Inverse folding.
């Protein structure tokens, strides 16, 4: 049975993410929550969750011996399908500026910057259900209608350098990045595990994705 490695580095909504992935897998894939780089190397697909500050999450991921190297080997060299969720998506960036500039994984060029809505009355963090605007078709969005709602909670957003890497946005006093993607790498700012039917469909699509 193919395995999905859900990376445990002390910063992620692991229980609900594992439960949603297992539901989406419907017995066809094994979901393994792991901090073991060897498990990552043997997995067919990889999911990187993340909750909290960019710098803390990057520090936590880097502190797991061999994990960043295993991810790089598996995702960049072998082309394993990869999904980053929330801060797990933001870590794909070149750099984050929360609590000082810190390098990210650098897999998708761009910066993670503070949300600055055009309407000063809009509260930060951006939190709750918001509509998705799909800019370009992507296999992970198959069967998900434009205008579908997803669940967000974040104070910073990923601004990709290349327009082609921006897959979907949401509007909160101006467009905010909702999804990025490049080849076998994808990331969502929203939480699929909290986004009900929309999120479940995205996870089902991820589990069958052949980039």
């Amino acid at each position: 049975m193919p395995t999905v490695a859900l990376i445990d580095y002390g910063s992620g909504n692991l229980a609900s993410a594992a439960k949603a992935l297992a539901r989406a897998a419907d017995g066809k894939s094994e979901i393994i929550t792991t901090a073991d780089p060897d498990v990552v190397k043997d997995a067919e697909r990889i999911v990187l969750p993340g909750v909290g500050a960019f710098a803390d999450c990057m520090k936590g991921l880097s502190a797991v011996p061999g994990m960043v190297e295993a991810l790089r080997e598996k995702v960049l060299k072998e082309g394993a399908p990869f999904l980053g969720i929330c801060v797990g998506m933001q870590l794909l960036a070149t750099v984050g500026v929360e609590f000082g500039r810190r390098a990210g994984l650098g897999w998708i060029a761009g910066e993670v910057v503070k949300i600055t809505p055009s309407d000063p009355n809009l509260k930060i963090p951006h939190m709750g259900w918001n509509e998705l605007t799909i800019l370009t078709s992507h296999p992970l969005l198959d069967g998900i209608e434009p205008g579908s709602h997803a669940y967000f909670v974040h104070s910073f957003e990923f601004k990709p350098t290349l327009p082609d890497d921006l897959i979907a946005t949401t509007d909160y006093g101006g467009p905010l990045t909702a999804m990025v993607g490049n080849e076998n790498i994808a990331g969502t700012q929203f939480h699929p595990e909290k986004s009900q039917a929309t999120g479940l469909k995205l996870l089902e699509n991820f589990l069958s994705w052949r980039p």
The chain has one domain: 3-208. The mean pLDDT is 96. Residues 196-208 form the longest helix (13 residues).
